[in-house]
Amino acid sequence: MLKTLIATLPRTLLLAALCAAPLAPVHAQGQLGSGRIGFVATERLMTESKMAKTADARIQAEFSKRQKMVEEAVMKLKQASEKFDGEAAGLNDVERTRRARELLNMEKDVQRMQREFQEDLMQRKNEERAAIATRAYKIIEQVAEQDKLDAVLAEAAWFSPRIDITDKILKLLDK
Asked: Sorting pLDDT into bands at 50, 70 and 90, what band is 173?
């Protein structure tokens, strides 16, 4: 019965109920207690911390040369395509076909270059974010123990500013 009830509840309602459960008074031991919850805006940690800004600058320096190469390749392809479009009417069939194949191959190379660039860039960003997340998680754990928090949420549909510990985590992360 309980399983079917849980299965039919919307996921957000179930999450809210689970989060609110520690806040309910405890009568089993004859004590009146409440849970304490904190909230951390993880995206802010990934964008506003010194660690994140340093990582972004490092990635920018690392990938700027490749980005410029990709942009130059795109520009060359565009110029070659425009030149071909202008000259195509005056070319014989064999020459037009040969140049069209060259353009097609050039386009494939540029697309591959763009795709590889984007994949490498995303991989590096994910590596840096993982390092920030690992350090932030340890700090969140320490703050939760120090402040005697029962739970720290990273995502919420809504949260009260009084439970937001993001600024505290940012300060500790920036040390």
From this structure: very high
Exposure of 91 by Cβ count < 10 A (0-12 exposed, 13-18 middle, 19+ buried)?
Answer: middle
DSSP H/E element including 147: none
Whole-model pTM: value is 0.71
- Gap between the Cα atoms of 60 and 65, Å rounded: 9
The C-alpha atoms of residue 81 and residue 116 are separated, in whole angstroms, by 23
Backbone angles phi, psi at 39, to 5 degrees: -130, 140
Give the type of residue at 166.
T
pLDDT in tens, 111-120: 999 999 999 9
What does pLDDT average to over the chain?
A: 85
How far is Cα 41 from Cα 5, in angstroms, rounded to an integer?
31
The answer to whether 151 and 26 are in contact (CB under 8 A) is no
Q: Provide the phi-psi class of 148: left if phi over 0, else alpha when psi is between -120 and 50, else beta.
A: left
In angstroms, how far apart are the furthest CA atoms of the chain?
A: 95
All structural domains of the chain, each given as residue ranges with its CATH number in brackets, are: 36-173 (3.30.910.20)
